[in-house]
Design brief:
Distance between the termini: 33 Å
Shape: globular
Largest sheet: 11 strands, mixed
Number of domains: 2
CATH architecture of the largest domain: Alpha-Beta Complex
Structural class: alpha+beta
CATH topology of the largest domain: Fumarylacetoacetate hydrolase, domain 2
Radius of gyration: 18 Å
Strand content: 25-35%
CATH class of the largest domain: Alpha Beta
Number of strands: 18
Order of helices and strands: EEEHHEEEHHEEEEEEHHEEEHEEE
Helix content: 10-25%
């Protein structure tokens, strides 16, 4: 099933909804089920198996109480993550190669170990929200379509064969990046973490709706033109490896978001580089989850 966070027009309160895996318009408000979760973080931390079953049944019926996704304000599924997002850098070989072409001294490195960095998210923005361009500060705004993995329970010293038991679900994430700031500081934190740099959504698809491992196509388009087209079976370091490695020495809390890296086709990888400008529309999609569309302003 798909979970979403939304607002009703004219309201500021975030609400939760559920829809069938095969649906993209009609969804069921969780408040109609008497489920009083504060937000998606609260749902992930506290939901009981019987409540998950109740939501699954509701997503497939009770059409008289459904709302239309097109008629509500779209929020990121987890609009205020409790912790920084954990990101993988250079986790597709073709993206690693294009990054090295752009700035060898920053991106060239051995592939023996995964590249991890964190992304501060004061507020993740939803489908349809605007990406700020920060004129005067950013001169090389870029996009990165990625699969986001959301953990459903605390993970510590997890073995790779058990890794998917800790996954709550999956979402789409655009790891928006200011390349001039990312490369200037060597550490990528500032250039990845500006307000508005984390479009996410449109849905959080529960893990039981996907194969283990999920083999999904990841795409991005800019102004309707295809830029990225990769698959999750091209990861250099897969989801079980990442969960096992990170949890070997740190507790990954329930609600943790891991963004698994981006395929080739980003702006800095083009010859010459083609970065985003105000007015550009970026679409990021992952097969089986949906697409987020955001305009640069």
């Amino acid at each position: 099933m798909k979970l979403l966070t939304y607002k009703l027009p004219g309201e500021e309160k975030e609400r939760l909804g559920v829809m069938s895996s095969s649906e993209f318009e009609k969804f069921f408000p969780l408040e109609e089920l008497g489920l009083g979760f504060l937000d998606m973080n609260d749902l992930i931390a506290r939901v009981k198996p019987e409540e998950m079953e109740l939501m699954k049944k509701a997503s497939c019926g009770l059409q008289d109480k459904t709302l239309n996704y097109k008629e509500v304000i779209h929020c990121a599924p987890i609009s205020h993550p409790h912790q920084d997002i954990i990101c993988l850098g250079l986790n597709f070989m073709d993206h690693a190669e294009e990054s090295t072409r752009y700035k060898k001294e920053v991106f060239q490195r051995e592939r023996t170990y995964a590249v991890y960095f964190s992304k501060r998210v004061n507020e993740a923005i939803g489908d349809g929200a605007k990406i700020p361009s920060y004129p005067g500060l950013v001169d090389s705004l870029d996009y990165e379509a990625e699969l986001g993995v959301v953990l459903g329970k605390d993970a510590f010293q997890v073995k790779r064969e058990d890794a998917f038991d800790y996954v709550f679900g999956y979402t789409v994430l655009n790891d928006v990046s200011a390349r001039n700031i990312q490369t200037r500081h060597k550490q990528w934190y500032f250039g990845k973490s500006m307000d508005g740099f984390t479009p996410m959504g449109p849905f959080l698809v529960t893990e039981d709706d996907m194969k283990r491992p999920p083999i999904l196509t990841i795409k991005s388009r800019v102004n309707g033109v295809l830029r990225q087209n990769g698959r999750t079976d091209q990861f250099i370091f897969d989801i079980p490896h990442v969960i096992e490695e990170l949890s070997s020495g740190m507790t990954l809390k329930a609600g943790t978001i891991i963004s698994m890296g981006t395929p080739a086709g980003v702006g800095m990888g083009m010859m010459p580089p083609r970065f985003l400008s105000p007015g550009d529309v970026v679409e990021c999609s992952v097969e089986g989850i949906g697409m987020i569309t955001n305009q640069v302003v």
